[in-house]
Amino acid sequence: DGGITQSPKYLFRKEGQNVTLSCEQNLNHDAMYWYRQDPGQGLRLIYYSQIVNDFQKGDIAEGYSVSREKKESFPLTVTSAQKNPTAFYLCASTDMAWGGTEAFFGQGTRLTVV
Amino acid sequence: QQQVKQSPQSLIVQKGGISIINCAYENTAFDYFPWYQQFPGKGPALLIAIRPDVSEKKEGRFTISFNKSAKQFSLHIMDSQPGDSATYFCAASRDTGNQFYFGTGTSLTVIP
């Protein structure tokens, strides 16, 4: 089955630690996105990538980093510089490298700082 | 600045009733308006989408009404069922753009 796989489903981070969230897609999509979801705030864009080895900051990129070494993979690192990382993180992809098409989402990773 | 404004934040509807969620946008360059449905602990999934060349699109019990002059669009869920209980997000994007702009979401509860 084609789709987007995010792992892990739940992740716990200690203060001062960096953690990496995995996102893999087998849809052969060009563009990939990372969103953060907080109650009452909808989906906020962290980073996006339209092609391999290129990515752009979204609205809330501070404290996060990404890489796009392969078309299928777009991992997100939550660094210790992110002051409030507890949230639900969603990875998405689109067929074309522009917005007028369906976005497919993974099942999300819930990150909690302990 | 919120590019897409969504209301209400939460909605409770009786089974069999009509659920209506509204969204408004500012950027007239937007030309793709999808609605996503999200169940707890899951990622959003596309429910229905519309382009501004039509004023209405219907798929089963779900209808999008689009008012280009008012820069508003809404989701109507007819004969609402308990299984429709979820969070609904509207969004907007441009064909030539590179990201989606999401509303803040509406939590729908359909009571039996």
Largest interchain contact: A-B, 30 and 26 residues
What percentage of amino acids of chain B are in beta strands?
over 45%
Average pLDDT rating of chain B:
94
Number of strands of chain B: 11
Oligomeric form of this entry? heterodimer
Main beta sheet strand tally, sense and closure of chain A: 7 strands, mixed
> Could you give a short account of the major beta sheet of chain B?
6 strands, mixed
Structural class of chain B: mainly beta
The portion of residues assigned to helices of chain B is under 10%
Tally of DSSP β-strands of chain A: 11
Mean residue pLDDT of chain A: 91
Structural class of chain A: mainly beta
- CA radius of gyration of chain A is 13 Å
Q: Give the amount of beta strand of chain A, in percent.
A: over 45%
Number of helices of chain B: 0
Morphology call of chain A: globular
Helical segment count of chain A:
0
What sequence of helices (H) and strands (E) makes up the elements of chain A? EEEEEEEEEEE
Query: In percent, how helical is the residue content of chain A?
Result: under 10%
The run of helices and strands of chain B is EEEEEEEEEEE
Distance between the termini of chain B: 38 Å
Features:
heterodimer; A: 114 residues; mainly beta; 7-stranded mixed sheet; 4-stranded antiparallel sheet; 0% helix; B: 112 residues; 6-stranded mixed sheet; 53% strand; globular
Word description of this protein:
- The complex is a heterodimer of chains A (114) and B (112).
- With 114 residues, chain A is mainly β.
- Helix content of chain A is 0%, strand content 52%.
- Chain A has strands at residues 4-7, 10-13, 19-25, 31-38, 42-51, 54-57, 64-66, 76-78, 87-94, 103-105, 109-113.
- In chain A, strands 2, 4, 5, 6, 9, 10 and 11 form a 7-stranded mixed sheet that branches. A 4-stranded antiparallel sheet of chain A has the order 1-3-8-7, with no helix packed on it.
- In chain A, a hairpin with a 2-residue loop joins strand 5 (42-51) and strand 6 (54-57).
- The model of chain A has no long low-confidence stretch (mean pLDDT 91).
- Chain B is mostly beta strands and 112 residues long.
- Chain B has no helices and 11 strands.
- In chain B, strands 2, 4, 5, 9, 10 and 11 form a 6-stranded mixed sheet that branches. A 5-stranded antiparallel sheet of chain B has the order 1-3-8-7-6, with no helix packed on it.
- The radius of gyration of chain B is 13 Å and the shape is globular.
- The A-B interface holds A 4, 6, 31, 33, 35, 40-45, 48, 50, 56, 58, 90, 92, 97-108, 110 and B 6, 9, 31-32, 34, 36, 41-46, 49, 89, 93-100, 102-105.
